[in-house]
Amino acid sequence: MGSSTSPVPVVLIAGPQASGKSTVARALVEALRERDERAALVELDEIAGMALPTLPSWVVAADIFATVIGEWARSDLTCVVAEGIASRSEFDMVSARVPEPAAIMTIAMTTPLGTAVPRALADPTRGISRDERWLSDRYDEWRRERALVDEDLALDMGSLSVQEGVARAVAAIEAKRSGALGGS
After folding, report:
1. Which of 11, 71, 115, 122 is the most exposed place for a label (fewest CB within 10 A)?
2. What pLDDT does 123 receive?
């Protein structure tokens, strides 16, 4: 649980489409709130969705996303969970807006493409990410981008349950807090 001496952790959940980012992010916020945390969930797709179909560009949405994360990190929340990041440039935008002494923690989501495709196809709310070729290209991009990101935790949601992923994320948040406070 957060305390007034703990820096606000900003948890960035990154990965390609259909890797489990939204599912884990929502379950993580719920688990944190059950622990009496004051947590916010910021989703890049939700930010972009506010301007559809007239969204000027994805970069504009990512910039607004980063700004919202930074503002929540300045509030009296104990944790900000943000999901939707998939590139180093998006990480850099968020990092530039998160105030000191907030501790940024990155969770890299992985899922085999063979697991992601059926997930995407089963979700009627998805658009282009239901196209297998398009999704495959995003997974190739993520492999390249992931090498450029400093991750604190990797979750393979092809082999973990949501509950197992969330438990690992909560433990990593606590470890990040302890490390930021000079512990462990």
Report:
1. 122
2. 84
51 vs 69: CA distance, rounded Å: 18
Q: What residue segments make up the domains of the chain, in order of their start? A: 9-177
Q: What is the mean pLDDT of residues 107-129?
A: 87
The H or E element spanning position 103 is strand 103-110
| Partners of 42 in the β-ladder | 82
Per the structure block, which two tokens stand in for 153? 């935790």
- Backbone φ and ψ for 126, nearest 5 degrees, come out as -80, 150
Residue 58: φ, ψ to 5°: -65, -30
The CATH T-level fold of domain 9-177 is: Rossmann fold (3.40.50)
Tokens 């981008």, located at residue: 145
Rounded to an integer, what distance in angstroms lies between the CA atom of residue 106 and that of residue 115?
22
Of residues 180 and 1, the one with the higher pLDDT is 180
For every residue of 137-180, DSSP letters joined together read: HHHHHHHHHHTTS--SEEEETTTS-HHHHHHHHHHHHHHHHHHH
